[in-house]
């Protein structure tokens, strides 16, 4: 029997965060600058005005105060490693992360619960911002301009952290892979591959790889105690062959509700 759609199912922490990201994007791109403002301005003089407005290479008031980068005044302040996750540089950047977050974030929320999902999301995104730049400069010192002349922003660090944490959870409970919807698998694979190895190389590749590894590490640290104690939904399924079949059916139904 097909499950009836309920409007309240749309009110997840992930979907609320997506709305916040969209609102912040438009505020950042189109809020007017205050009189006498001399901070960051994303407007590209060598591009037609229509291009600037359509693709979002204009504005930048929130970027000036929330993104991270040496080109910004006080641009390496610690708080920016958190606030940069609410901003995006252009419309395609926003769309890619919103689509990825919708599928990956909502699945993680069903698997871990909303509060643990976003502890992982923000923790990984925050830590990754301190590792990526030094690592990239060590690997490619000739491309230092990417770090010193651009503002860093975007939700992809947190999203890749969730991917890493979810893979850690699957490792401890391999049967749960069958419970993931096909659209989530396809979008996760496409998002990871396209945003890292097709759309851009260099700094972005380092950023996403760092976030992914951090997600694996954080996810493992969170899940390992449950695995060792064989408690909670993070542990592998307990052998129930000696239990009545009715109990087995009930357990399967509960697991299916957790992961679908």
Structural summary, described in words:
- The protein is mainly α and 260 residues long.
- The protein has a single domain (10-259), classed as Rhomboid-like fold.
- It contains 11 helices and no strands.
- It has helices spanning 13-30, 49-55, 61-66, 80-83, 91-112, 114-139, 145-148, 156-172, 182-198, 203-229, 245-259.
- α5 (91-112) crosses α6 (114-139), α6 (114-139) crosses α10 (203-229) and α8 packs parallel to α10.
- The longest helix has 27 residues, at 203-229.
- Mean pLDDT is 85; it is low at 236-248 and 250-260.
Q: What is the highest CATH level, the class?
A: Mainly Alpha
Q: Rounded to an integer, what's the Rg over CA atoms? A: 21 Å
The low-confidence parts are: 236-248, 250-260
Question: SSE order in H/E notation?
Answer: HHHHHHHHHHH
Structural class label: mainly alpha
User: Approximately what portion of the residues adopt beta-strand conformation?
Assistant: under 5%
CATH architecture: Up-down Bundle
Oligomer: single chain
Query: How many alpha or pi helices?
Result: 11
Distance between the termini: 15 Å
Q: Could you give me the name of the CATH homologous superfamily?
A: Rhomboid-like
Q: Overall pLDDT, averaged?
A: 85
Overall shape: it is globular
Query: Remind me, CATH topology?
Result: Rhomboid-like fold
Largest sheet: none
Question: What is the total domain count?
Answer: 1
**How many strand units?**
0
């Amino acid at each position: 029997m097909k499950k009836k759609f309920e409007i309240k199912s749309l009110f997840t922490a992930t979907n609320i965060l997506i709305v916040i990201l969209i609102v912040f994007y438009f505020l950042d791109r189109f809020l007017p600058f205050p009189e006498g403002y001399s901070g960051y301005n994303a407007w590209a003089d060598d591009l037609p005005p229509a291009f600037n407005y359509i693709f979002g290479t204009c504005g930048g008031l929130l970027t000036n105060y929330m993104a991270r980068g040496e080109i910004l005044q006080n641009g390496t302040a610690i708080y920016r490693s958190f606030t940069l996750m609410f901003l995006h540089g252009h419309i395609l950047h926003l769309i890619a992360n919103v689509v990825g977050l919708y599928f990956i974030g909502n699945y993680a929320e069903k698997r871990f619960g909303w509060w643990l999902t976003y502890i992982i999301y923000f923790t990984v995104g925050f830590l990754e911002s301190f590792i990526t730049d030094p690592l990239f400069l060590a690997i490619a010192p000739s491309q230092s301009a990417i770090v010193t002349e651009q503002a860093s922003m975007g939700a992809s660090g947190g999203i890749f952290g969730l991917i890493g944490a979810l893979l850690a959870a699957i490792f401890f409970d391999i049967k749960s892979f069958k419970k993931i919807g096909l659209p989530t698998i396809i979008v996760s694979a496409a998002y990871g591959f396209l945003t890292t190895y097709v759309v851009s190389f260099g700094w972005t590749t380092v950023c996403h790889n760092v976030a992914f590894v951090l997600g694996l590490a954080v996810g493992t640290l969170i899940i390992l105690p449950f695995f060792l104690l064989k408690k909670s939904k993070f542990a592998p399924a307990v052998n129930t062959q000696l239990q009545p079949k009715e109990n087995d059916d009930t357990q399967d139904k509960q697991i299916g509700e957790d992961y679908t």
